[in-house]
Automatic annotation (TrEMBL):
KW Membrane (keyword) present: yes
InterPro entries assigned to the protein according to its UniProt record, in alphabetical order: ZIP
Protein name per its UniProtKB record: Metal cation transporter, ZIP family
Keywords: Cell membrane, Membrane, Transmembrane, Transmembrane helix, Zinc
């Protein structure tokens, strides 16, 4: 089971961001025209999954008070880590985005692993949603490198590297969850806080257009329809 979940994380992470990187290389600046919609769509999907699935499962496991506290701590930890990241030199913007994506892909993998243990169908839905939002992440990351005159090969490789922490998170989440099943709610709460911060601080605010709003609304509808 652990190997299966880890493999799912590897596929979701590397292929998701890798495809985004390939799109950036193929379409270059043209691909950026669709960023607002896809970022909004993925943001809406992720926000809905956090609100309607992760948090609900966490509250069932540890109660609303502890869940709220840990969600806040997860978001705060992500904010502090993000502020501590300082990268300089050539392709600084690309590496900064790479660090940011790696930083939140780990808890996303953790979310897949712990959610998969609690309810496999929900875990698969979570993996699919994360895979979908990894595509615009990989696209944005690769464009950051390409705009700084990095090679297409380098941009794609960096995009794929950004997805690896999802597999690591899946392994840790599934292993830790099986041994200490009583604290799955704790892990889900922390992951929910981290993911919520990323969506609200990075994904939706960075894409300011009507297409972002349409994407967010469509993402929410998709999740509610599946649920």
């Amino acid at each position: 089971m652990i190997l299966k979940i880890t493999l799912i994380g590897l596929i979701v992470g590397v292929i998701g961001t890798g495809l985004g990187g390939i799109l950036a290389v193929l379409f270059n600046e043209k691909a950026s025209k669709y960023m607002s919609f896809f970022m909004g769509l993925s943001g809406g999907i992720m926000l809905s999954l956090v609100m309607f699935d992760l948090i609900e499962e966490a509250i069932e496991g540890i109660g609303i008070v502890y869940a709220v506290i840990l969600i806040f701590l997860g978001a705060l930890a992500t904010k502090i880590l993000k502020e501590k990241v300082k990268i300089n030199g050539e392709n600084a913007s690309g590496y900064l985005m790479l660090t940011s994506i790696i930083m939140h892909n780990l808890p996303e993998g953790l979310a897949i692993g712990t959610t998969f243990l609690a309810e496999p169908k929900r875990g698969i839905a979570m993996a699919a949603a994360i895979g979908m939002h990894n595509l615009p992440e990989g696209l944005a990351l690769a464009l950051g490198f390409i705009c700084n005159k990095a090679s297409g090969k380098r941009a794609v490789i960096m995009s794929m590297i950004a997805g690896l922490p999802i597999a690591i998170g899946c392994f840790i989440g599934s292993s830790f969850g099986e041994i200490f099943s009583a604290i799955i709610g704790v892990l889900l709460s922390i992951a929910a806080g981290m993911m919520m911060y990323v969506v609200m601080d990075e994904m939706i605010p960075e894409s300011k257009s009507i297409y972002t709003i349409i994407g967010v609304m469509l993402g929410i509808v998709i999740v509610k329809s599946i649920a």
